[in-house]
């Protein structure tokens, strides 16, 4: 019988070297063997300059805890109720050179096991960004306890997305009323027409699909730099009003990119009942973005804001829907 290796009898630098060769899977499993080991690993990793991960948690049918390190490498735990998957591990490469190393853990109590794992990885690793993908249909009776749990670990998150088929506002509102989102919100589910986004802080972006609840007044109240809106009830006349307010700096002065469906393509001239310039789409120009980056532009229509910024507008299609897109820049 082999004797266990006395790791903690080694000098600290040697211990650190051993741990630095471990994968996150091995680090988490190792940290669960004793409180002493867990504390040592926590101190080591949290003081390391190279230990800055992005945390992704997902309440899918098989709840997920994953974190991305350097070189687009994702280490992913999936909690499963299928005993045959316990301990299964798959490595795969995806588009954009993303690499996924996935490990399955069996449990009869999926959300409880998921919570234990989330708590452990947050205790051990240092995260620079927190992303929550919330599937409201998968564990409907536990949605509020999931939100309460996340709030107990961090009062704010950078990115969240909502997915589901059930038209329910309550769980989404509970999430947004209890967790402050600082960068991006994605609504990939149908909400009732009564729904109103409850936060008033500025965000980098919104994805809203479908946007059945997004009226003109609600759009004006949203504060963000990028908007991707599909299936909203906003009319061409209201789009005209929106662009006029933008041109006169009365709304969305930090807007950088705007995409929205056009409900009546036959009367889209109504949208441009305002000062504008038709542009040769074959001519490429250079626009300087608000962050000073430059971008090549080909546009159909230019509109000018009263501070000199230009909105370059194009039209596109998504299946049978017409879309308006606008990029905001300073034309050079």
UniProtKB/TrEMBL annotation:
Domain F-box residue range list: 4-42
PROSITE patterns xref list: FBOX
InterPro entries from the UniProt entry: F-box_dom, F-box_Sdz-33
Taxonomic lineage: Eukaryota, Metazoa, Ecdysozoa, Nematoda, Chromadorea
Top-level taxon in the UniProt lineage: Eukaryota
Protein name: F-box domain-containing protein
Pfam annotation, one family: FBA_2
